[in-house]
Amino acid sequence: MTTSREQEKEALIRDLRVNTGRDLAEWVDIVETEGPEETEERVEWLREIHSLDPLQAQTIVEETEHPSGRLPRTDEERVSAQFANKAALWPTYERLLAVVAGLPDATVQPHYSYIALMRGDQEFGIIYVGDNHLDLGLNLMNVEPTNRLEPAGAFGDLRITHRVTLRSPSAVDDDVVGWLQQAYEAND
Asked: CA-CA distances (angstroms) from residue 182 to 40, 94, 96, 173, 179?
């Protein structure tokens, strides 16, 4: 039998996107990548910085620190979850991975809602898996946008300045390879 606290928690998690603009996976990513280390500091940080109510903040921190199985935990599970029902995008992702593999010391770090491209501890890009495309976000300070290399806007965060929409492996062309290389080199 489900307790009322469990039912309340399930409803809160189900309604996070509507009430906060982000789902549980996105909030866990934020806490893990940007938040403080200690439990109580995390709760207060979510309340003060992100204006969450106490129950939302507590639930997100609980799911971050003591996963209930709602979210995938391994890197492979995180990538698989992002590509669920989107197998047509996999070849484009593999093409991006091949380019990243050619960059010395570059690594791929899957999160719950995006995949980070790292050089050491610096994020030089992110991959977001959309319904019918991949968005490649890049950290390219002082680079003018083009028709294809758009300003990031609300995509990503302050580290991501530009984005490129990719709908097929052929979209990972010389321009995209050059932008990836430039972002990689600028973030050492």
From this structure: 40, 20, 15, 14, 5
pTM above 0.85, yes or no: no
| Distances in whole angstroms, Cα of residue 68 to Cα of each of 9, 13, 24, 61 | 11, 12, 12, 12
Strands 115-119 and 106-110, by their bridges, are antiparallel
Q: How far is CA 33 from the centre of its chain?
A: 10
Choose among 67, 73, 55, 71: nearest CA to 15: 55
Reported as a single tens digit per residue, the pLDDT across 116-141 is 999 988 899 999 999 999 999 999 98
Question: Rounded CA gap, 183 and 124, in Å?
Answer: 6
User: For residues 129 and 126, what is the distance between their CA atoms, to the nearest angstrom?
Assistant: 10
Kindly state the DSSP code that residue 2 receives in the 8-state scheme. Answer: -
Task: Count CB neighbours of 179 within 10 A.
Answer: 20
Cα gap 162→30, rounded to integer Å: 20
User: How many CB atoms sit inside 10 A of residue 81's CB?
Assistant: 15
